[in-house]
Amino acid sequence: MGLFFGVAFIVLVTGYPLWGQQAATPPNPANELFHLGMIRLREGKFKEAEEALRKVAELEPASSRGVLGVAEVYMAQNRADDAVQFLQGELKKNPARLEYRLSIGNLAVRAAKYELAIQEFLAVLMRIDKYSPMAGDLYFRIGETYRLSSKPDLSVIFLRQAKELLPRNAMVLGTLALVLDRSGQKEEAAREYKSALDANLNSAEALNDLAFVVCENGGNLDAALRYAQRARELEPDSQAVADTLAWVYAKKNMTEPAISILREIVQKSPERSTYHYHLAVALEEKGDRSAAIEELRAAMKYNPRKNEELRIKELLLKIGKPDQHP
Known about the structure:
By secondary structure, the protein is mainly alpha-helical. The protein has 19 helices and no strands. It has three domains: 1-122, Alpha Horseshoe (Serine Threonine Protein Phosphatase 5, Tetratricopeptide repeat); 128-248, Serine Threonine Protein Phosphatase 5, Tetratricopeptide repeat (Alpha Horseshoe), CATH 1.25.40; 253-326, Tetratricopeptide repeat domain (Serine Threonine Protein Phosphatase 5, Tetratricopeptide repeat), CATH 1.25.40. The two termini are 37 Å apart.
């Protein structure tokens, strides 16, 4: 989410408006004020940052960076409502500035104001070429916003539109796969993860997700292992990637490497129920039932998701010692 909904901040850094508009070359005083504003923002000196960026907006009426900078100052202070209201005021003055609408949508997503975000993204979409890459970007934003607001059916509709216009975009393909996966459409999800992987062979996230969905869906475990091992090469410090690799090992009955990895990540993140559960599965496969039960009970302490809780209880019953957790 940060990549796409942080576009407003990219505009801040580069100084260029969205949608390919040409910005006038700003005079040196505006550049100096802009950089000063960014420095003050990073330092937490919000009043000084706002003053500098408002000056930038006055000096550069053709550019968006000063206006969007002020909105970022408000967001840094957890003043999302003020940020949105400020941009809405600027939009009333300049209704043709689509970058203001897009930025309102981005800020609304960050503030979990999903209906407002979708409203603004659709408003931008209505004003551009529906078959352009820019439209694909908007379809993606809308689909991602529906995903965040727990509306997977609508999310899939817009993500498919994004895929048609951006067929090689790994982020679009990976997000579509994720929504399909969580909606129970495992086979189609696996195909989309594979497409995401083909689009970016060096995406640890795509590799990791593909390995997990193939593993969970009863797919080719040798292929899942290759994906997981490549993801680990790319992100050796990621606990999520390590967990997926260990889970594939466990599914392949390679219990020793699975247990070794899982013990390490459980020690680093003892509050993650999934890591305890996966370690319990590997321990049970090895035959160490008492240690497996201990990990299952630990997993129950950390509020597992409903489907995971059911798996934990099923394994406890299988082991032969029903869960006494209240």
